[in-house]
Amino acid sequence: MKLFDELKLAQGEYATRRHFLKACSMGLGAAALNSLTGFKALGNISPSSDTGNLTVPHFAPRAKRVIYLHMAGSPSQLELFDYKPELERLHMEQCPPSLMEGKRFAFINGTPKMLGPQAKFSQHGQSGAWISENLPKLSTMADEICFLKAMHTDEFNHAPAQLMLYTGSPRLGRPSMGSWVTWGLGSENQDLPGFVVFVSGGGTPSAGKSVWGSGFLPTVYQGVQCRSHGDPVLYVNNPEGMSRNLRRQSIEAINKINQKQFNEFQDPEILTRISQYEMAFKMQMSVPEAMDISDEPAYIHEMYQTQPGETSFANNCLLARRLAERGVRFIQLFHWGWDSHGAGASGALNIGFKERCKEVDGPVTALLTDLKQRGLLEDTLVVWGGEFGRTPMMENRSGVDNPYLGRDHHTDAFTIWMAGGGIKPGVTYGETDEIGYYGIKDRVHVHDLQATILHTLGMDHEQFTYRFQGRDFRLTDVHGKLIKEILA
Amino acid sequence: MMLLLAVSCQRDTDQLSYNQDIRPILNENCLACHGGIKQMGGFSLLFEEDVYQPTESGKPAIVPGSKHKSELFNRITHHNPEYRMPQDAGPLTSEQIENIGIWIDQGAKWETHWAFIAPQMPEIPQSSANWGENNIDAFILKRLEQEALEPQVTADREILIRRLSLDLIGLPPTPEEVDLFLNDRSPNAYQNLVDRLLASPHYGERWAALWLDLARYADSKGYEKDSPRTIWRFRDWVINAFNQDMPFDQFTVEQLAGDLLEHPDRQQLIATAFNRNTMTNTEGGTEDEEFRTAAIVDRVNTTFEVWQSLTMACVQCHDHPYDPIRQKEYYQAFAFFNQSQDSDLDLDYPMLEMYSEEEEKEILNLVQEISEIKSEARNPKSVLVQDKIKQAIFPTLLPTQVDDFHNVILYDNDELSNWSKNVNTQKDKDYYFQYSDIEFTGLSGLTLKYSTGGDAAELQVYADSLEGTDLLTAALPYTGAVRGAEGEGNSSLKTEHWDFNQQLSGAHHLIFKIVNTTGEAPDGIATIKHIRLDYDNRVMQDPRLLSLQNQLIELRKKADHTPIMSDRPAFHRATHILERGNYLVPGEVVSVGLPSSLPDFSEDYSRDRLGLATWMVSNENPLTARVLINRLWEQLFGIGLVETTEDFGTQGASPSHPELLDYLAVRASNTHSWSIKSILKEIVMSATYRQSSKFTPDRLEKDPYNRLLSRGPRFRLSAEQIRDQMLAVSGLLNPKIGGESVMPPQPDGIWNVVYSNHKWETNPEDKHRRGLYTFWRRTTPYPSMISFDSPSREFCVSRRIRTNTPLQALVTLNDPVYLEASSSLASRMVKSNVDNLDLAIQTGYKIALGKKPDEETTRILRDLYYNANTELKGELVSSGVNQEYRLDAMTVVANAIMNLDEFVTKE
Questions:
Q1: Would the ipTM clear 0.85, i.e. be above it?
Q2: Which parts of chain A have pLDDT scores under 70?
Q3: Is residue A222 part of a domain?
Q4: Cα–Cα separations (whole angstroms), residue A457 to A61, A330, A481, B672, B736
Q5: Does any domain span residue A266?
Q6: Which residue is closest to B803 within chain A, CA to CA?
Q7: Which of A49, B69, B131, B149 is the most buried (most CB within 10 A)?
Q8: What is the domain-level CATH number for residue A466?
Q9: Which residue of A157, A275, A283 is the best one to mutate when testing the B interface, meaning the one whose CB has the most B CBs within 10 A?
Q10: A4 vs B91: CB contact, 8 Å cut-off?
């Protein structure tokens, strides 16, 4: 015993000494914070299989929740944020072979031509951020936004790239970012799921529901897809004819018998079931209430361009704000249709792409404005982007002249932006070369983005692990570094 | 307390055990830096051969016999925390330090991890207590006595029959079956019940569900398009194997290597679909080799998790951090699977063709007629219909009948092409395919039906091998249109004949190579539709023969195709170590082998999957039987004897009852001859299994998770069992066994997958089939199954986590399927020919739970009926005995019964 005490004392002195040497800037200790934020998980896991995660947050969080706006298919950064006059000059020139060497593309073959920017650019706000004419409304918010211009990823097909972005691995089977976050932090609202997903644009993302799946984490942490038609959450509505009163009576009857069963068997799992039935009853009220946007005032509908009852990105943005207000931890929007290969009108940079921009410009701007006006932007992190970027070269599928302009998938350079909780506003971080082909300064890998998002929520991505198949897994796999420069 | 004292008293004199006393300390505190990934200071504790070696300092860290000469001991007790180990962490406890010191002084004897030592038959513990039905109970009792706990009383018979039925056939007993059992007073009543259930054809369905999670069985290919895959015959194979009680060694060999058995039959080939349940990426622009590699990696990981409970996945990038497995050994295991012909092709070749009984009869008749005309006396070795067809239509060669192929794509319209979806990587690729053992005597040339997309393709034909006799080189000129995966336009097939440069005799392999002479893609495309060999001396042009052969070719379109394993006979792949697991960075070439910490993979074993499978089920293998026992135990008790079903390595949990695990493992192959039914029977016959599942305060305190088995199992049913039970008690269940996967109703909007016209369509007959038949699409699984924790089947899952969530309550309360079942149960209650409400309620409760509700439960449900009666204005239904009920009000009651904790729980 004496030996142990001596060693412990020495360790304490050593740690104190090192603490000052390292000039620790983490602020409050993790222990104190736990009691401030509290741990509330939606649902109960069989105790022996719940690894538990009471050690998070690791330090003071700046954001309490995330709204992630995913533009599935991946919009072209070269028509939105990454302004390249040099590319304009090279328009329709042959691509120099040096750019093609050792590169893998999904569809480009042979020697393609360069494609100049298909939009006019100008600088906006105090920060002077470059934003194209495709996003006139968002341009007014330039000073709220932090642009990451030299993003890169490893995967050049949609499904693997989306999985890479949301699960840290291009293969199916790992938990998604929202699952990790709700597993770690629980939900702030006991009556709503902690991780909610909305889909618009006519298709589920390429990687399917796995991008909001819980992988090897308990299924209770998977994203709950909310729908505009039918039940907003599957089976949340009572069958026709069953009143809320009768539902209450039936759940009371079920729980009374369950209580009796508990008295006889003393299995704590029965008590959990009783409370889950109570929560289901509450969700039946709170979910439709949260999902009903018809009670919003006219100016809000005007601002978001919403039409109650529609399945649209605009409606989903407004719903995102309503859920953020109610303490939902992770709100994920997918808007499909950004895969602008130029194979047809809807995928043309000069046609369909512009339509998509119009669909999101107003609602995204409204969301940022609305969150700011309500004081929610301070502790809500908003992220916008695709799963990869687009090439500065024109895609020439099957080598024939094509009235539609398009770009192929590109892993080495794309733009993602963030705003709100814990991120510096009015900043442009990272730079690509003069044709927007490759990041030349402050490159950010998707794993780095994940590390940074977790950091704003108070979590150290290297310590935030879950043991599965004998290994400690984390969202950032074995990679990822925090982008300190963009933290507020 | 007494026990702890006893242990510490013995400490000074007794030999400490590395496995029990030391390894857990080192694993937790040291291996992260001194293990398989990092060997800080040149010191690793992973392999015995490393432990006593000199470290970077030149001295060994451990000097057996002297703790003071051992740097390890000095460093864990160092006064300066900068040097003291473990670094940047608190010191070890004084007890841990003391133990390590004693262990070194006692000679620092190394021990192999328990799971790597073959199980020995342990001594059966003796006890004075008069409890138990078989030897299992002796082991359980010994442990309970150590913890001062007593076994629970035997559960009531109503509970036992429900527990047994759900466990053995996955369905609840009918009220009649319950009454029969209650009234059976013979001493063998329980055993007879067990035997009856084990003989039920539904037994296979229940146990297949376990195996299908391990086999990552799904009806779709995964990834972006996640298009459907026809592989349900494998699911049926598993059901049948369980029903026929196929011995587990045979079950293992057929799944891992059925194709390598001598003249395998269809069922043995279907068994190999186990390893074709890997995902196939059909997204445009993906690199097939990348996803082929991913599939092989999955096969290695799955095979080792399923049979060995080893976490091989760790080793694809580096040596195992905790278990004695080196990265090279991973790729030696990879080599077993690397010769499989499948290569991430959209159509999942190679496949087994299956026909309906009628079609098969027709085919065999045609084959017979043809062979009479051809007057061939050859008796094909293969019993497969597809091989008989191939022989009958000879000398026509269909591209989809190739014996081996490399970098070509096979289409189900019998075309072969070197078109690749990833056109960017067409350049520098070699494209070739082979027909084996062709009779060359009299063979003078060939006729080809083909199309090309340009003037770039050249055909080369060889005998024997790619380096063998050169038979033909011919340009394939532009035919006018491109045919291929993404190509469009009309086909313009050209037919052309060439003579060979020379004539050979006897049997040779015939190899075709397509060369892209420009290197530019996609201009080198060639699509081949038909090959006909031209013989000098044989009468092959008999119009009747040709017509019969064409009929046969037509009939092939009716086949359904199951992907199977088949090794390349000709174009073997070299297996490289992949640096950091990356297929683009191949390293050293390796051949098949197994980790040296496992039993010797001696020369007696063939160097292929058959050798691997035989080795797995050999008596020397320390893991296979234990892993099997553990899985069966977990299914029955909710938690394995080793809690980490998926990991028996040093980071896995220790067994709660190691001697019991070994006892059952040794008996598995000896006494039980690998019969799973026989093993299950031994377990369910035990008194341990028959205990009441009631908790008591001391059990809750000393045994909260029932690791000690101080009571019977009580846990929530699986997703499949919940669905099946609901259908069974409502009377809706369609008990049909096997067949194509089915699409029971699900809400609109679930099934919207990109780039697919494949629809979710419910066949009315298949509305109420058991859960394991539900079409399993990996990216959009059936919602209520997922709510109850079924995995997505993307990867092998050994252990389902059981959650308890409000979304589950919403499923059983409001899912239309549950409402339909509630309504159906309500009509059974109404029509049960009873003349009062209480009896109707009691009937419903008994149908659902196999027992009579007590007075209070009846009262609560009666009140609910009256409340519902007030709220609803439904139709009155006569029970036939002067009593009228509202069916909708009774439905509310039935729905409540199906939402009770005891209903979704096995207790």
A1: yes
A2: 1-55, 102-110, 203-204, 219, 228, 396-402, 469-470
A3: yes
A4: 5, 11, 15, 55, 52
A5: no
A6: A45
A7: B149
A8: 3.40.720.10
A9: A157
A10: yes
